[in-house]
Prior knowledge:
Elements: H1 2-8, H2 18-33, H3 37-42, H4 49-59, H5 66-78, H6 82-93, H7 96-116, H8 131-142, H9 152-158, H10 160-164
Helix pairs in contact: 1-2, 2-6, 4-5, 4-6, 5-6, 7-8
Amino acid sequence: MTDTQRIGRNVIVNVGDWQGLLETNKVAFFTGWVQRPEFLARFPLGMSAADFVNTLNSNTSNSLTPPETQPLINQLAANNTTQGRAAAVRQVSENAEFTRREKNKAFVLMQYFGYLRRNPNDPPEAELNFNGYNFWLAKLNQHNGNFIQAEMVKSFIVSGEYKRRFGL
Length: 168
């Protein structure tokens, strides 16, 4: 939730230079991301550009094609700094193929974060697993990503858990 809020902080669509502010927030987010201890443990500063990009790509089930991978390696080799690493992570995370494959998963997850204010495996999830999340993901996939046909948002809004947040 904190990361989501950080990217959207003070952004009001169609008001002022909202696109510039959103871009600034994204740059700050990715720069901060590659400086986190957890990230540095997995991607140490001494890691070669090729290993860095190939590991990122592997983590996205090889979303990048070879013609996309090599220029990114070259770009990072020329600028293997915090800013260069942040740009590489952003480029991989915003890759069209990766986005296509992850969109429904992310959409379901955002329903949990947004409406229920919790992780999908947190209480009151009956068995503290991802059964509810997996149910909604399967239903969304069954309807080709059409959340209206899947009646997904509607179901979250009328759920007892959501209503209890507002004392209803």
